[in-house]
Each structure stands twice: as C-alpha cells, then as structure tokens.
Amino acid sequence: MTGTAAALDGKRAVVTGTASGIGEAIARAFLSAGARVLAVDLPQSNVGDVYADHAGAVPMAQDITEAAAPDAIAARASEALGGLDILVNNAGIAHGGSIETTTDALWDRVMGVNVTAMFKITRAALPLLKESGAGRIINLGSIMSDMGGPELFVYGTSKHAVAGMTKSMAVDLGRYGITANYLQPGAVVTALSAPFFEDEAFRTYWVEKAPVGRLGVPTDVAAAALFLAGDDAGFISGVGLNVDGGAIVKF
Ligand SMILES: NC(=O)c1ccc[n+]([C@@H]2O[C@H](COP(=O)([O-])OP(=O)(O)OC[C@H]3O[C@@H](n4cnc5c(N)ncnc54)[C@H](O)[C@@H]3O)[C@@H](O)[C@H]2O)c1
C-alpha cells in the first residue's frame, strides 16, 4: 500500500465482518491509510482483540442480523467517530445446497446476512453518509453476482441481489454525493472459502481458471476497496469490480 498511506486521512468508516478474511484486510488497509474504523463482527468473534494494536479502530461486537443492529451501528459511528464517510458491507456467509436441498431456514439465514442486513444497515447509515457530502458505499458481491454455481443456490441468489441493490443505491443516492459500488472477489482464501478449497480439484480449477495463475488473498480485495473509498473515485458509481485474477473473463 505504499504511496496511499494518507489516502483516507480523516475519513470515518464502518466495516462489517472484520474479525477475519477480506473484512479484516479492508479495515487494516483503511487504518493504514489514515481512516478511523468502526470494526463490526459477531459477539462470539475475537473482533475486540484483532485491533488491540490500532488506536484508530473501534471494535463493535454485534450480530448484524439483529433487529436493533442497524440503528446501533449508526449510533456508535456517530458517537465514536463523529460521523461516517465510508460504509463497507462486507459480512457474508456461504452455505452449500441446490434449489432442491435449500431449506426455508437456510434461505432466511443467508439472505438475512448477505442481503437484508446490507439494506437495513445502509438505510440507517444514510443520514450520516449524507452529512459527509462525499459518502462511499462499498458492498461485497462476488463473481457469483454474475453467474450461478453448483450447489451454491442461495449464496448465488444473494450475491445477484447485492448487484441489483448496489445499482439501485447508486441511482437513489448520487444526488447526495454518495457513490455505491460492489466488489466481486473470485477465489480468495479465507475462513469462508477454506472448506471449499480443501477439495484439491476445486482449488486447481480456480488456480488454472485465473489467467494470473493463483488464488486471491484478502489484501487483493482490500486494495480495490481502498481505491473505491478514496476521493479520486468520486465519479465511479453503480459498478461491480471483479477482483478475480481474470477468472470470470476466461472460458
Ligand atoms: N473468500 C472468497 O473467496 C469470497 C469470494 C467472493 C465473495 N466473498 C465475500 O466477501 C465477504 C467476506 O468474506 P470472507 O471470505 O472474508 O469470509 P470470512 O468468513 O473470513 O469473514 C466474514 C466475517 O463476517 C462475519 N460475520 C458473519 N455473519 C455475521 C453477522 N451476522 N454479524 C456480524 N458479522 C458476521 C464473520 O464472523 C467473519 O468474521 C463475504 O460477503 C463473502 O461473500 C468472498
């Protein structure tokens, strides 16, 4: 991240799902770039310890699917950061299953984290983002925002919803100087994806599918988030940015 050290100086950010993986990498990149970050993750996570070394981080133990979560997150951002410039809706879960095996409970669980919480947290944060004058919303989609995948029925559905929701946010919120974009990671090794990559054939498939010839790491995605969060990205809105080593464009 050399050369971008002060890119977010004075900015105030909320990032969800920051105890591990891509969310942690985004929060750390923002902190290194001078932002203060409200770092949200589940009460049973170790989010309080992850940022013990960072004065600019405010950890918040909160399940984002709880009814009180959106207002609680906005209130904490206001109180601890004095406002909000950047919202990263990163927290997400993935569970396997086809349309035939997906139960109502699984559907509600995945859509609850990946879609409904994203909508409600963003809605609650809007007064603060409007005050910012240059608000940034960055949502975590996936390459599965553009395609289906075997045994990933509800996950794929949820990530397509992220694409549609983000484009609608961009249209509704541009008048307030707010941009909304979504990131589309490919195969990135994290706690969420590790069980899938234990299958050697699956791992090899994704290494070979990416023209750059490797799996992604969380900092690959954080670099894209840092760019979209910055002042220079103010004319980019409604876009899905693939961070996949080129995998999706190769058949
Ligand atoms: N890893 C990949 O290959 C990949 C690919 C495409 C998209 N994504 C997306 O990137 C995002 C981050 O995924 P990751 O791979 O870093 O996963 P991860 O499991 O490492 O991290 C997700 C974090 O979200 C938190 N979280 C889950 N449910 C929550 C809830 N209800 N309330 C608060 N926090 C909650 C978890 O505790 C965890 O710390 C997700 O939206 C995921 O769908 C990941």
From TrEMBL:
GO molecular function: oxidoreductase activity
Keyword annotations: Oxidoreductase
Pfam family, one: adh_short_C2
PROSITE patterns given in the database record: ADH_SHORT
Keyword NADP: no
Family statement drawn from the similarity comment of this UniProt entry: Belongs to the short-chain dehydrogenases/reductases (SDR) family.
Protein's UniProt name: 3-oxoacyl-[acyl-carrier protein] reductase
Lineage: Bacteria, Pseudomonadati, Pseudomonadota, Alphaproteobacteria, Kordiimonadales
